[in-house]
Amino acid sequence: MLRSPGPGPAQKSRLCRGPPPWLRPLKRPRHSFAAPGAWWGQHLPLVTVLLSPSSPRLSWRRMVGVFFLPFILPAFAPRFKHEESLMLGTAHPPQPRFNWSHLTPLELKNRSVGLGTASTGRGKPHFTLEGHRFLICGGSIHYFRVPRAYWRDRLLKLRACGFNTVTTYVPWNLHEPERGKFDFSGNLDLEAFVLMAAEIGLWVILRPGPYICSEMDLGGLPSWLLQDPRLLLRTTNKGFTEAVEKYFDHLIPRVIPLQYRQGGPVIAVQVENEYGSFNKDKTYMPYLHKALLRRGIVELLLTSDGEKNVLSGHTKGVLAAINLQKVQRNTFNQLHKVQRDKPLLVMEYWVGWFDRWGDKHHVKDAKEVERAVSEFIKYEISFNVYMFHGGTNFGFMNGATNFGKHAGIVTSYDYDAVLTEAGDYTEKYFKLQKLLESVSATPLPQVPKLTPKAVYPPMRPSLYLPLWDALSYLNEPVRSHQPVNMENLPINNGSGQSYGFVLYEKSICSGGRLCAHAHDMAQVFLDETMIGILNENNQDLHIPELRDCRYLRILVENQGRVNFSWQIQNEQKGITGSVSINNSSLEGFTIYSLEMKMSFFERLRSATWKPVPDSHQGPAFYRGTLKAGPSPKDTFLSLLNWNYGFVFINGRNLGRYWNIGPQRTLYLPAVWLRPEDNEVILFEKMLSGSDIKSTDKPML
Prior knowledge:
alpha+beta, Beta-galactosidase, Jelly Rolls, B-gal_1-like, TIM Barrel, globular, 6-stranded antiparallel β-sheet, GH, 34 strands
């Protein structure tokens, strides 16, 4: 902290020339955190010196100096004194009150400057929107994790909680599932989601990647990028940038008319995501920055990194923001080194955490979240709650971590967020709503009604079809001299296979030591009998001696590609490399792709299904009927006596279930149900269960 020096001998000699620089008045900020009467007591010693009768001269200059002292001395405090107080918990300024009723997408018609930054004379920077002081109060909702029919409900709940901004990632892998084939329809209609947010009164911050992390398969990058081992992800490698250019050529023209200055709600766009922790190519972030500008992005650009990686992730000309779990003593140190003249933005304040299979369910205390957001508001730190509403990793979209061991992200992306996976209110919601209402100069909108839930009659699958009987309903298999990994299979117009399972089949006539590199988990069969499991930690097993030739079958599942760290470069799935028995390579494979697309289930209906036996071991499809009545409602499927597999409702993939937990139920939205009868198909990998129940409460 700087000390106030007072008029020493050298300064006294300058009094006749007017006040010294340290006494010249500065413009006082509009908002001061100190009480008006407190200043004089804090600085009484200096006032005494200036007015003391023993002073040689009580000139007009000295009187002017005393008059301006309250305006000057705050400038000697550190420029980020308020953030330091936040970290130490030593200051408790009064809560500011905000009136943004005129700063909403529907009200703000005359637009020119958009979201910007400004600084008062005291040096405390802040955001501005169309020149008005503005605090970003954001919440994350991912449109691709929420059924489209529920977008409005979730956005209305965000607005009713007191937030003014919604943030969302844009997943490249979902929007370009095959090279050159783009999908912005249905649940992937980004433009419709953004325009709906504007209609409700929310600003939007877009996070288009190309890499987004988000606990998605390969961090949101398309798996077909892994076909060429020379292509280096998240660098200026030619193969990667060519793919990015083509993707941006389709994505960014959709974003341009949604920008603030075009009359849309998008006030900022994020460049990539958390590159500071990757940091493989110093020219990569400037390249992306220019790629966005070149295509017409004119709104504020920002980066987002963990508090320890801000320096390495920062890009010149782009606002730096940080992600954090809690505020600590040194939280903003690196951010201050990067930019001392910009407002603080916490792009991700983690109000919960994601879960992994075989791990515990993570929760975060609502009071801790309330305290942190309260501190952000007190010190006018803009923030984004991650997640406000997490939603669901429907289908195969989940990612994975690998900190010594591969662990897939569970189907639920509940995240212990402000709204539950099903969009229900939580203690966090009501605490934040009360807090934000207390600082709002205008009443908050009415809270939407709860989404009704139902418990349906238990159902027991009546028919089943072993995987081996379903092979003829798959697309034509690939015949190859050597095994081919999932991404390099010559299917989907040359884009390979992204998700699901691959079955490798080969006739063998002798046993021995089988060796294969399978990712992530492989069941090994002789004909239809399972003899073992292969994974990253177990790459060989013993095949007993054979009297006759048998089919060796290796069923490999992609349990989710790693979504974080440099490991994304080596996330090819299926069998990578050769398969050998007693060090002798096997040749001549038939390879089946099990992508579990809706078209496959349509063909499967014409198969000859069999009555379900008392027990069946091995991979099989089980079919039954869920009776939802005339008016379907949300529910949660409970598969407690089943083992491991996926659930498909009317052909839609709800996601993975697994008895190792922590997740015990699967969210089934009412909008995916039909009145009365609904087809339910389970693909169970291990051992059949009995009935399938539903509940109106999740078990996570």
